[in-house]
Predict the 3D structure of the following.
Amino acid sequence: MTAKPITPSLSVSEQVLPQDIAALAAAGFKSVICNRPDGEGADQPSFSEIEAAAKAAGMQATYLPIVSGKVGDADALAFGAAMDSLPKPILAYCRTGTRSATLWSLSEGGRGRPLPEIIAATKSAGYDMAGVVRRIANGGRTPTDTVDASHAVVIIGGGAAGIAVAASLKARKPDLDIAIIDPADIHYYQPGWTMVGGGIFDPESTAKTMGSLIPAGVRWIKAAVAAFEPDKNVVILDGCRVVRYGQLVVTPGLKLNWAGIEGLTETLGRNGVTSNYRYDLAPYTWELVKGLERGRAVFTQPPMPIKCAGAPQKALYLSADHWYRTGRLKHIEIDFFNAGAVLFGVKEYVPALMQYIEKYKAQLHFQHRLTRVDGPARTAWFTQTKTDGTTETVETGFDMIHVVPPQVAPDFVRVSPLADAAGWVDVDQATLRHKTLPNIYSLGDVCNAPNAKTAAAARKQAPVVAHNLLKDLGAIKEEDVAYDGYGSCPLTVERGKIVLAEFGYGGKLLPSFPGWLIDGTKPSHLAWLLKEQMLPPIYWKAMLRGREWMAKPQPVTAA
């Protein structure tokens, strides 16, 4: 018998024997719940035997027998009541532990605990609650087995990737039945936030209403996704509404895990702590940069993968350039703490970037991961990983700190049957089709293709998904097309110049322009004009409207 923790107050296990009770008491358990009816198995002790052993060990025992496969709504309520009344921690058991885990899941669903949190907790204990996700989403109660909506194509997420793929599909097949599921009212041009933090763009220019961008003829379902049931071709929404799909495209972006750094959420937006990764904080970055006369400025980068791997150092360059131009740089110390081992992952761009690191006299600290921030004390702590694998804590003060949080897949994706071991949607890197669920695609930040997570990547991925999905539907006859891993990172090294990094899988350089026009390995004013004046309208008026400028996909055989 092995106790498997679900929460600090509850563990579950397979059948408990009377001789196990003393060890459970010694391990600190105060109560036992039996969810297995007497007489279910020939080698099974009766509850009275377990109760007697528990009493002798100073523990309480409760009998809540559930017939296998027949966990009722009232049973879940009774389990919750027992959890409330019994001394903790509690061990609940049945033949394998599954009934006990199910009862807890339904009970917690009724209390309002988020479904992804419930699924993650039971999954970590070794129990799969996929069979009861609708009941959990329905507040722990058995829902009606009806479908609230049905569409040929359902797209999860109305960000850059979601709207772009909807527009690409509509451009190819205008009568296609498509729905986008997204609860947000506002759509953001996130690549512009670095420029907001550098005092170049107004924040308002990076935001538009979601309704103004959903392509004509596409239904917008304004709701959040709770779970997937790919075996039934349905998506479960918050409130247990059910949407059926023929083809599913998963593009909800990623989750910025601000809580992954101790003390950060309490001090964001004040005490000199900022981040260009949030719309409301990017203006504060510029406020801090303008106001800093002397002192220490710290910039951080978390472990990969992250959204736009160049953005953490873009904040450094634009800030340092302002201090350089205003004559303050000699009074300001700049530190860049990077959890990675190199300045940039594609070596061809590093020499140009290092020239600016040296120009701004920035100190590089590799293999340093931000773990804690104390805003009022203006102090940050990093875990440094040394070459021999050992770690130590490094402390530094700051007058301003630009923080980039660790990033993970959204909770409802991470715990779903669509995810790989790391939590990202598991796709073929060329076709972007799910590896084991052929009517599901994913693109943008949430898929596990080994490319840079940028809007430029989504711009190239959307036509690939649109083509391959329509091929699956029989709407076009051509062979599959392939995504080559293209991503673009316009590294704003100073106001008026950009190192235009463009690359694909394996770090292969994939320049969009001839070298005589823009040499991406060198700072360029023309690349700056592209970033400042051309890319925003390309995003709003081309990418999100199915106009695939310089994004024509190639057949798999030619890729």
